[in-house]
Design a protein that fits this description.
It contains 18 helices and 10 strands. The chain is an alpha/beta fold. The chain is elongated.
C-alpha cells in the first residue's frame, strides 16, 4: 500500500486505511511520502488503523509547529531571516519527537527492527523492509527511498538509520521546515546530505513495489485530489511562476495516475482542504477523516477502471436518467388514470377522493419520516435535494455516514416510500383543482374548465418529483463515483420545478376555496 503526502490530509489517509482494512485490505508492505510516511510508519510499527485515528484526532497540529526564534520574535521579517540562516521557518523537532515517541511505544527505532524486516525477501529487494519512506536528496537532486537506498545513497546500514528521522526527512517541506542533514558515507561521499520533502520527486510513488510483483494490482494507493479537479495557474509574475513550477515539479509524475491503468488501484479522496491547514477544528478533522472512509467505499464499489479521468464529467445519457423507469411510470400512470377519472365522477365523489388522498398522503409522509429518525441532528433530505453541487452533496452524505453506517438504507427507504406519496398528492391536488374549477366557473366565465390544466400541472410536478427521487438515489452508495456528479444539480432543478408547479396549483386551489367561501 502506498500513501500520498499532504500535511493534515493524513487524516483522510487514515480514514481510508480504516475502511480498507475493515473489509480485508491488510497491507503487508507500506510506503509513503511526507504525511503518508507518518501513517505508513505507524501502521507498520504495529498500530491498528483505529489507534492511528485516535492518535491523530487528539493532536493539535499547531502545537507541533515549533518556529525558529527569529520567526517567533520578528515576524514577518523573521521568516525571511529564518530562510536565510536556517533554510526554513519551522524547526521540525516537535514533529520528530512526536513520531519518535509513538514509534518507541512499539519498540521501533531503526529500519532493522524485527517487525519492519521481511526476511523472506532478498536483502537488496525493496520489499526486504515492510516500510519504505520516500525523501529527496537535495544535494544530489534525486529521489531517496529509505531503507532501500541506505547503502547506495547514504553509505549506511538500515540499522544505522532511525525511522523517525527518515519520516522527518520526508516531511521537510522546502522553505517551511528546516531540512535534515545527515552524514554521507557512500563511495561518492559529498560530506553531508541535505534531505527535504519526498513530494518534490514524487508525492505518490505508486509503482514503488511493482518490480518483480506477480501483478501490479497487488499494490493499492491512497491519494487526494481537489473536488473540482486540478486548479489552473495564472502565471503573471515571479511569485505565480514559482508557485506553478513547484506544483508541476510535485504533481506532474503523480497526475499520470489519472491517465493510466493505475487509476483502477487508487483510492482517490476528493477534498478541498489545504494540506497546510494545521488549524483544523475537531469537527473539520472528523469530516476529513470521513471523506477518506467514503473514498475507500467508493473504491470498493468502483468495480471497473474508469474510461476517462475522474475529474471529467461524463455526459448523461437518457437511459442513465431513468433506471427507476418502472416506479416513475407506475406513479405517473396511476396519478394520470385517477386524475382523469375525477372529471367523470360527481362532485360529492371528488370530495371523498380529496379526503382519502389527503389521508394517504399524510400517512405516507409520516412513514417517510420514520427512517430519518436515525439521522436526527444531521442535514435533512431537503438539504440533499437542494445541494446543487458535488461538494455540498458529499458533505451531507459524509455527515449521514458519520451518524449511521446504514444511512444509505434509511435514505433509500425514505425515497421509495416517497413514490407512493407522489401518487397520493397528485390525486389530492387533482381533486382539489377540479373542485376549485367548479367553484370558479360559477362566478367567472373565463375560468370554465380551468381546473383541468391545473390537474396536468400537478401531474407534471409529480413527474418532476419522481425524477428528483431518482437523482437522489443515484447519489447513495454504491452508486457514486469519483469526480463531479451531475445528480445534485439535476435533483435541484427537478425540485425547483416541482415546488414552483405545486405552488401554482396550490394558489389556484386556495383561490377557488376563497371564492366558494365568500360566495
Amino acid at each position: 500500500m502506498v500513501l500520498q503526502g499532504g500535511g493534515v490530509l493524513m487524516l483522510g489517509l487514515a480514514g481510508a486505511l480504516v475502511e480498507l482494512e475493515r473489509v480485508g485490505y491488510t497491507p503487508r508492505y507500506m510506503a509513503g511520502t511526507s504525511a503518508g510516511s507518518i501513517v505508513s510508519a505507524l501502521r507498520m510499527a504495529g498500530y491498528t488503523p483505529k489507534e492511528i485515528e485516535e492518535e491523530l484526532m487528539k493532536r493539535d497540529f499547531l502545537e507541533h509547529l515549533d518556529f525558529t526564534w527569529l520567526a517567533r520574535i520578528l515576524p514577518p521579517i523573521g521568516l525571511l531571516l529564518s530562510l536565510q540562516f536556517y533554510r526554513g521557518a519551522v524547526r521540525g523537532d516537535a514533529f520528530l519527537e512526536l513520531v519518535r515517541e509513538l514509534l518507541s511505544r512499539k519498540h521501533i527505532s531503526s529500519f532493522d527492527s524485527p517487525s519492519l524486516v521481511d526476511s523472506s525477501q532478498p536483502v537488496d529487494d525493496v520489499k526486504h523492509s515492510r516500510l519504505e519512506v520516500v525523501t529527496t536528496d537535495l544535494t544530489r537532486a534525486k529521489e531517496l527511498v529509505l531503507p532501500y537506498d541506505c547503502k547506495r545513497g547514504l553509505g549506511q546500514n538500515p540499522g544505522d538509520v532511525e525511522v523517525a528521522l527518515a519520516v522527518r526527512m520526508s516531511m521537510s517541506v522546502p522553505f517551511a521546515f528546516v531540512p535534515v542533514e545527515t552524514a554521507d558515507r557512500s563511495p561518492s561521499a559529498v560530506g553531508r546530505i541535505v534531505c527535504v520533502d519526498g513530494g518534490i520527486v514524487s508525492s505518490f510513488p505508486l509503482d514503488i513495489f511493482d518490480s518483480g510483483s506477480p501483478s501490479p494490482h497487488d499494490t493499492v494507493g491512497i491519494m487526494h485530489l481537489p473536488t473540482r479537479g486540478p486548479r489552473p495557474f495564472r502565471v503573471t509574475g515571479i511569485l505565480s511562476a514559482t508557485q506553478a513550477l513547484w506544483a508541476a515539479a510535485c504533481n506532474a509524475r503523480d497526475d499520470r495516475v489519472l491517465e493510466e491503468d493505475k487509476y483502477v488501484r487508487t483510492v482517490i479522496i476528493r477534498t478541498d482542504v489545504s494540506s497546510n491547514a494545521f488549524w483544523l477544528s475537531q469537527q473539520q478533522k472528523e469530516q476529513l477523516f470521513d471523506q477518506g472512509v467514503l473514498a475507500a467505499r467508493n473504491f470498493r464499489n468502483r468495480g471497473t477502471p474508469a474510461i476517462s479521468a475522474p475529474g471529467a464529467l461524463a455526459p448523461a445519457r437518457f437511459t442513465d436518467l431513468l433506471p427507476h423507469r418502472a416506479a416513475i411510470a407506475l406513479s405517473v400512470l396511476l396519478a394520470l388514470g385517477i386524475g382523469l377519472g375525477l372529471g367523470r365522477v360527481a362532485e360529492q365523489t371528488q370530495w371523498q377522493i380529496l379526503w382519502w388522498s389527503l389521508t394517504a398522503w399524510l400517512t405516507l409522509l409520516v412513514l417517510q419520516m420514520i427512517p430519518m429518525l436515525w439521522l436526527i441532528g444531521t442535514p435533512t433530505i431537503v438539504h440533499l435535494q437542494l445541494s446543487r453541487g458535488s461538494t455540498r452533496a458529499r458533505d451531507i452524505l459524509q455527515r449521514w455516514q458519520q451518524r449511521n453506517g446504514n444511512f444509505a438504507i434509511l435514505v433509500r427507504t425514505n425515497l421509495w416510500v416517497d413514490f407512493g406519496s407522489i401518487v397520493a398528492y397528485v390525486v389530492f391536488f387533482g381533486a382539489a383543482c377540479l373542485l376549485a374549477g367548479h367553484a370558479l366557473e360559477t362566478h367567472h366565465w373565463w375560468s370554465i374548465g380551468a381546473g383541468v390544466p391545473f390537474v396536468w400541472t400537478a401531474l407534471a410536478a409529480g413527474l418532476a418529483d419522481g425524477l428528483e427521487n431518482h437523482f437522489l438515489l443515484r447519489l447513495l452508495p454504491p452508486k457514486p463515483a469519483d469526480g463531479p456528479w451531475p445528480w445534485p444539480a439535476l435533483a435541484t432543478y427537478a425540485a425547483s420545478f416541482k415546488f414552483q408547479w405545486l405552488g401554482v396549483v396550490a394558489l389556484y386551489c386556495l383561490y377557488g376555496l376563497a371564492t366558494a367561501v365568500v360566495g
